[in-house]
Amino acid sequence: xxxxxxxxxxxxxxxxxxxxxxxxxxxxxxxxxxxxxxxxxxxxxxxxxxxxxxxxxxxxxxxxxxxxxxxxxxxxxxxxxxxxxxxxxxxxxxxxxxxxxxxxxxxxxxxxxxxxxxxxxxxxxxxxxxxxxxxxxxxxxxxxxxxxxxxxxxxxxxxxxxxxxxxxxxxxxxxxxxxxxxxxxxxxxxxxxxxxxxxxxxxxxxxxxxxxxxxxxxxxxxxxxxxxxxxx
Amino acid sequence: xxxxxxxxxxxxxxxxxxxxxxxxxxxxxxxxxxxxxxxxxxxxxxxxxxxxxxxxxxxxxxxxxxxxxxxxxxxxxxxxxxxxxxxxxxxxxxxxxxxxxxxxxxxxxxxxxxxxxxxxxxxxxxxxxxxxxxxxxxxxxxxxxxxxxxxxxxxxxxxxxxxxxxxxxxxxxxxxxxxxxxxxxxxxxxxxxxxxxxxxxxxxxx
Lengths: 232, 206
What we know:
The complex is a heterodimer of chains A (232) and B (206).
Chain A: E1 4-5, H1 8-12, E2 21-24, H2 34-43, E3 48-51, H3 63-67, E4 71-76, H4 83-90, E5 95-98, H5 101-112, E6 117-120, E7 134-137, E8 140-146, E9 150-161, E10 166-167, H6 176-181, E11 183-194, E12 213-216
Parallel strand pairs in A: 1-12, 2-3, 2-9, 3-4, 4-5, 9-11, 11-12
Antiparallel strand pairs in A: 6-8, 7-8, 9-10
Chain B: H1 4-12, E1 20-23, H2 27-30, E2 41-44, E3 48-51, E4 74-80, H3 83-91, E5 97-100, E6 104-106, E7 111-112, H4 127-133, E8 136-141, E9 152-153, E10 168-171, E11 174-179, E12 182-188, H5 194-199
Helix pairs in contact in B: 3-4
């Protein structure tokens, strides 16, 4: 089966549905599926729910879909650095569900592994625990969190082979593997597609079973907080 | 009274050779400058163990950032992993200690450092996972707020990040441990008397 598509738009055209739940990889602006987000913007799909650690900045990442009012709800751990997000949230146009970062990652991983719920001590005794089932294990309290089962996963990797085996680069891996795992369909955008056999099978970060479509393209890879030290 | 760097240096004394440690944003970040000869591996919860210093100008890599989204560098010991694995090691108690900032800490170990009702809420990020999961939670913060009121309280007034999670508190005035019944004074900062420390602290001292 051919997994390579010629563009983000081509890979997205028959999978986007208004109101769908999309799991997106990335941390801040690092390792975000920037081509696929632009493709969703061009497609104009509306009322989207995004499970994504962050919401981008005003003009990059998920921020570009906030500008076009395509997002109904965000499931995130941190949404600073985005003025349009805050405007829409405070005016009631945008729903927001805060998840602790590790809970969000595990909810994605669990969904991808067929686990509908798990207990965690993260958030016990805080607003995060409100309305959630709690249970004692060995004298400690845990709360029930649910796996995320997304309609679509969009992720960014460094390299793919044509079977969809993925390799990520440095901290750009972040949420991409768990986000990829929890979607019914996963589209990965990569910097380079290499022939099968050219990636070391022992060093595959995410096996191609999780990846249904692959798009190669040029990435801006914007830096959010450029921080340097002086050369001695 | 200690300044920011003295507080960071005091916090670095909390770390033991061989520990894997997560440092929060602000004063906790400065702790890395004071670990001396100890073999400390810094975790960045976006998916890295063995975090190195900021890059030289021109060496920035957009694929290599810390949890504060700042460009950083890798070391010879560095390992990368995904966010689920990263918080697996945090939740699973593999990280020996986290050093974090705070808005309020209470005498029962409650910690508030993520939201002020009525103000812009950006989210808890990984703070709730860290305080729930790591072996030891050390808070480093100014003793009082901008109105001169104690941030070391009998009970937190702000929404909690974690309940009963703090082990040790380091402020510009001194060091406390959270113990049965309240806080125990471990040490006073340079030039601060125990009476001054008690007077500046709302929490019960035992």
